[in-house]
Design a protein that fits this description.
Blueprint lengths: L8 E3 L18 E6 L10 H9 L2 E4 L5 H4 L7 E4 L11 H13 L3 E6 L9 H10 L3 E5 L4 H9 L11 E6 L13 H4 L4 E6 L5 H10 L7 E6 L7 E6 L3 H6 L7 E5 L20
Parallel strand pairs: 2-5, 2-6, 3-4, 3-5, 7-8
Antiparallel strand pairs: 1-4, 8-11, 9-10, 9-11
Bound molecules: S-adenosylmethionine.
């Protein structure tokens, strides 16, 4: 199904940064790609907060957590340019054009992305375009959802008894299906932890492909909705039940999936533990 397109939406901040001092002196226009982390504003880096306070324009994605925009300087323009699988999205080309337009006007532009900009964030395409246009670009890392999930569950993705590598995998191609370039035999390695982004809609197919490639159906798995946000939800169980477990968390909010023996400890956890912290 073709993804619907939408225009960037100007957002007026209600509380944004009123008490914060203005940013440092401005030089020529530039773009800073900022990682907003998984949602909890306390997981932002100090550098990210400084960039939000110094920005003239913030172009932000749908998955950026609510409290994070409160840190933007109140005089900054904020434009929602979100792209979400299966929903109306801004075209990448329009987002690139906006960054270029504002930077050419001498603005300090922040391109605010969920998690880390360099993980499934199309940062590569944006950096390429900005470099081609001769516009200065900097990247401020953020905590990627997969690592925030490991911390939230208190589970090491590389527990040395279980996994010698971690793979970040996308469950979503341009067409909304599983990417056809995934190497299923390689992914079905029992000594690797798989962390699957954008896999909420394709998890059933993914499980079938992994089992067919030799990963045991009883391999431990977890699915976590909205890591670090008030609506965080968790499921843990065997790979064979993962599709049902993930479906139970719904498709309206982001879901992260992890598979591998390192997740075995999750099955012994009280999956509601820690959630009260956000309640
Ligand atoms: C386009 S990718 C962006 C990933 C982001 N750059 C990062 O490093 O986390 C979007 C996917 O990231 C995952 N994701 C992002 N934030 C999440 C969160 N707070 N909880 C669960 N999954 C999240 C989901 O799998 C979602 O479909």
């Amino acid at each position: 199904m073709p993804v619907q397109q939408r225009k960037p939406v100007e957002v007026k901040l209600v509380r944004g940064g009123a008490a914060l001092p203005p940013g440092p002196d401005k030089g020529p226009g530039r773009v800073t790609l900022v990682g907003a982390g998984p949602g909890d504003p306390e997981l932002l880096t100090l550098k990210a907060v400084k960039a939000l306070q110094a920005a003239d324009v913030v172009l932000f994605d749908d998955l950026v957590g609510d409290g994070i925009l409160d840190l933007v300087h109140r005089k900054a323009r904020c434009l929602a340019v979100g792209k979400r699988g299966g929903r109306a999205s801004c075209r990448q080309q329009d987002i690139d054009d906006l960054m270029v337009k504002f930077a050419r006007k001498g603005k300090q532009v922040v391109r605010l992305k969920s998690g880390d900009p360099m993980i499934f964030g199309r940062a590569g395409e944006e950096i390429e375009r900005l470099r081609r246009e001769g516009i200065a670009v900097e990247v401020i890392p953020g905590i990627t959802a997969g690592l925030a999930m490991a911390s939230a569950l208190g589970i090491s993705l590389t527990h040395r008894d279980h996994a010698q590598s971690v793979r970040f995998v996308t469950g979503h191609s341009r067409h909304g299906t599983l990417p056809d370039t995934l190497d299923w035999r390689g992914l079905a390695d029992a000594r690797t932890t798989l962390v699957v982004y954008m896999g909420g809609r394709t998890v059933g197919d993914m499980v079938a492909r992994l089992v067919a490639a030799g990963l045991p159906a009883e391999t431990p798995a977890v699915a976590v909705r909205s890591v670090s946000r008030p609506s965080e939800g968790r499921w843990a169980g065997p790979l064979s039940l993962l599709a049902e477990g993930a479906a139970g968390l719904g498709l309206d909010e982001p879901i992260l999936i992890a598979i591998g023996d390192s997740l075995g400890a999750a099955q012994a956890l009280d999956m509601t533990e820690g959630l009260a912290a956000f309640g």
